[in-house]
Amino acid sequence: MPNGITVRAARVEDIKAMARVHVESWQETYRGLVPDAVLDDPGFPAARERQWLNTLTDQRWAAHRTAVAEHHGPLVGLAMAGPSDDKPDLMHLYVLYLLAEHHGSGTGADLLHAVIDPDKRTTLWVAERNPRAQAFYRKHGFELDGGSKREGGVLDLRMVRHPGPLSRT
User: Fold this and answer.
1) Angle between helix 44-57 and helix 15-30 axes, rounded to 10 deg
2) Phi and psi for 25 in degrees, rounded to 5?
3) This prediction's pTM
4) DSSP assignment, residue 17?
5) Contact between 90 and 83 (Cβ < 8 Å)
6) What are residue 68's phi and psi, to 5 degrees?
7) How many CB atoms lie within 10 A of CB 146?
8) Collapsing DSSP states into helix, strand and coil, what is residue 168?
């Protein structure tokens, strides 16, 4: 790609870098929303490594698509989607994390395209206090549907995307 970004399927050897991106993107995005004790917990990176190892090796996750974005080598983003936990006929976007320096580069859209099926209804949860992410998802056809839940003190809003072409921008 002209901007030096490559999006590809995640591999087991990416786990440590995936955990780094996961933790750093949370620290950049959720500081002030999630307690600092969670974001700065020394065990956070190891917990994310275990999560990604499980995701990439456990058969329970075989139907999920996991992709990473590289910028001239190092990972800068990751995404994962698959069958919804509560409604297997729906697709759910579980993860789309991108380091802040790559926001607006088109990499988020590339990751989204790599993991969701445009022909399936797709849901996701987004923090109420993350208007940038909400705008990104709206740009790609997601709409708030009125669903909400509170996790760890953060109010998450449910968004849904109906089948159809994905925006490339």
Assistant:
1) 130
2) -70, -35
3) 0.92
4) H
5) yes
6) -130, 155
7) 8
8) coil
Q: Six-digit token pair at 40?
A: 């700065």
User: What tokens were used for 15?
Assistant: 């786990």
Q: Which residue type sits at 73?
A: G
Q: Going residue by residue through the chain, which has 169 residues, state the pLDDT in tens, using 9 for 90 and above.
A: 457 899 999 999 999 999 999 999 999 998 988 888 989 999 999 999 999 999 999 999 999 999 999 999 899 999 999 999 888 789 999 999 999 999 999 999 999 999 999 999 999 999 999 999 999 999 999 999 999 999 878 899 999 999 988 776 6
Copy the structure tokens of residue 68. Answer: 């990473």
Q: Which amino acid is at 64?
A: H
Q: Give me the half-sphere count of Cα atoms (radius 13 Å) on the Cβ side of residue 86.
A: 2
Q: Is 84 within 8 Å of 47 (Cβ atoms)?
A: no
Please report, to the nearest 10 degrees, the dihedral formed by the alpha carbons of residues 129, 133, 139, 140 taken in order: -130
DSSP for 136-156, please give it.
Answer: HHHHTTEEEEEEEEEETTEEE
